[in-house]
């Protein structure tokens, strides 16, 4: 009797387990049919076979992932100012590594006379005779330190092309953080295409870089009225001394002159001309706008902790300037200058912009004074001085 009862209980439990399995399996089939119905109604393209289903689900999953919120476009001012110092240190460290710890200038010479009206093709302030021996010494030292060339028994000079190209690449790495500093700190808002067009010497267009006294000046910010006959509008940008000392060292101390010569050896006449004419160069050629955009965003992410691209940075810089720069004399003056920095104000062109008649920059004292004030305010905000960073 007990055995019969036991078999009955075991059979009953087995039946319950079987029913549970059947119900679970049935629920899975119902769920699968629902998913299949959604697929057929919403996602399916073509016949409902395994490949099409997997392909469409992959697209659906990818769209969900790519449409997630991106990182916030915000900048920490402390990280921004620390990033400026990081860029300065990068320029110094890379230059000393390239030159084995050798520098040329302790400061800018007092006897340099830069004629801004000289329109001779190829002219720049580095053509001053006092720099000739300095540039030659730098080139000889660079060739010797990096084994760029050798002289055979017949007295013929032979270049190590691979080593020359490697040195040009290293020179580009020295320049890149300086380009970033010039773009960020020289003006509140600079158009990238115009920045990439900066000339170190006269060519089809007049050069952009000048030395006046102990100041380095960029004539930048070409306005939208550049097609007007006999008139090329521009704004003076006063380079911060901490940044300008590196730019002067590289141009007058021989680095760019060495690049000009080595570029002809490794890449030919076109590279030789571009290195001699344009400021923004890298690895044998000019930096293209698309290269600048991607490199600018990546460097912002690395040193500022903020992945702002060119457009976002320009808009952010103008917003920060309006918030933090408070004029000492009149707010209207700052408003006008900030509008000019955005390159959108053309109706006050004659009053505030420097005018270039032909190839000669004509800049009034009033224009220079106002833009010097604005540059000092912006560079102080960036943590470069001459004043402490402003409060909002």
Helical segment tally?
A: 14
Structural class: alpha+beta
Strand content: 5-15%
Largest sheet, described in full? 5 strands, antiparallel
Strand order of the largest sheet: 3-4-5-8-9
Q: Any low-confidence stretches, pLDDT <50, length ≥5?
A: 1-19, 228-232
Give the distance, in angstroms, between the N- and C-terminal Cα atoms: 94 Å
Helix content: 55-70%
Judging from the principal axes of the Cα atoms, what is the shape?
globular
Q: How many domains make up the 3D coordinates?
A: 2
Number of strands: 9
Order of helices and strands: HHHHEEHHEEEHHHEEHHHHEEH
Radius of gyration: 32 Å
Average pLDDT, rounded to a whole number, is: 82
Please, what is the oligomeric state? single chain
